Automatic annotation (TrEMBL):
Single GO MF annotation: ATP binding
Organism: Rhodococcus erythropolis (strain PR4 / NBRC 100887)
Subunit structure: Homodimer. Forms a membrane-associated complex with FtsX.
Keywords, comma-separated and alphabetical: Amino-acid transport, ATP-binding, Cell membrane, Membrane, Nucleotide-binding, Translocase, Transport
Residues of the full protein shown: 1 to 233 of 333
Biological process (GO), any one: amino acid transport
Family affiliation: Belongs to the ABC transporter superfamily.
Highest taxon in the source lineage: Bacteria
Annotated GO CC locations: plasma membrane
Lineage of producing organism: Bacteria, Bacillati, Actinomycetota, Actinomycetes, Mycobacteriales
Protein name (record): Putative ABC transporter ATP-binding protein
All residue ranges annotated as the ABC transporter domain in the record: 3-233
Protein task: Part of the ABC transporter FtsEX involved in cellular division. Has ATPase activity.
Length: 233
């Protein structure tokens, strides 16, 4: 089990109003799977992602990453646990003044890898995402798809247990979307990394997810394999 999400609720208060962004969400995401979380705008996807990502704590409920309870971590444990989670962003979030190689090396610098280890690991990652000929390019010189390949390589740099993809193809055209999704499926097969994809697009889920959950108004309203989801009335 990678994530065990147990009755997670998140409330936002403004004045006397309480907004239930997540309402008793329970999900189990297994080791090695590609799991989709799909819902329209305002459904609660980003709130759930921020809870998985250790940026926010649920109001109630627990989230386990393996055996670690993410809702009960000290600041030091939080730092260690973050390394187990890689995040791929919609708008790539690359460092503009750094080359492709240096962007990918950044999390390794933060994690304290030696220069030689960083170099070897960056070479491996660049090959993995197929950017051998763009190693020294800067983000402004890359296409959207190439930028997202850098984002994926950077997210994988410290060998996380799970890759969280936050609308990772929403800024890309449909051919580029397909090639990025195929890359993610390929990385899942080759590395065995678990992937959680958050998206509002059914075709994304359809192309690569083994299982998916549909979220609406902060609740999981359906969950299963793609066949099960599509077969539902
Ligand atoms: P999605 O990512 O599916 O579009 P969100 O998780 O962003 O949905 O939002 C779910 C609900 O929670 C929405 O009604 C949104 O307005 C509300 N919400 C999200 N973040 C906050 C916040 N920081 N403060 C108050 N309300 C929020
Ligand atoms: P180094 O210690 O050699 O700078 P880093 O771990 O910082 O290595 O970076 C990994 C790879 O990224 C290296 O192969 C390096 O050549 C390249 N690199 C690092 N910083 C830059 C930069 N500012 N511009 C271009 N390439 C860089």
């Amino acid at each position: 089990m990678v994530f065990s999400i147990e009755s997670v609720s998140k409330e936002y208060r403004s004045g006397t109003k309480v907004l239930h962004a997540l309402d008793s969400v329970s999900l189990k995401i297994e080791d090695g799977e590609i799991f989709g979380i799909i819902g329209k705008s305002g459904a609660g996807k980003s709130t759930l992602l921020r809870c998985l990502n250790l940026l926010e704590r649920p109001t109630s409920g627990r989230i386990l990453l393996g055996d670690t309870d993410l809702t009960a971590l000290s600041p030091a444990q939080l730092r260690d646990t973050r390394k187990r989670i890689g995040v791929v962003f919609q708008h790539f979030n690359l460092l503009h003044s750094r080359s492709v190689a240096a962007n990918i090396a950044f999390p390794l610098e933060v994690a304290g890898y030696s220069r030689a280890d960083r170099r070897a690991r960056v070479d491996e990652l660049i090959e993995l995402v197929g950017l051998e000929d763009r190693r020294d390019a800067f983000p402004s010189q890359l296409s959207g798809g190439q930028k997202q390949r850098v984002g994926i390589a950077r997210a994988l740099a410290a060998s996380p247990d799970v890759l969280l993809c936050d609308e990772a193809t929403s800024a890309l055209d449909s051919d580029t979307t397909d090639s990025i999704l195929d890359l993610l499926a390929d990385l899942n097969r080759r590395l065995g990394v678990t992937i959680v994809l958050i998206t509002h697009e059914l075709n994304v889920v359809r192309r690569i997810c083994h299982r998916a959950a549909l979220i609406d108004q902060g609740r999981i309203v359906d969950e299963g394999t793609l066949t099960e989801l599509v077969a539902d009335p």
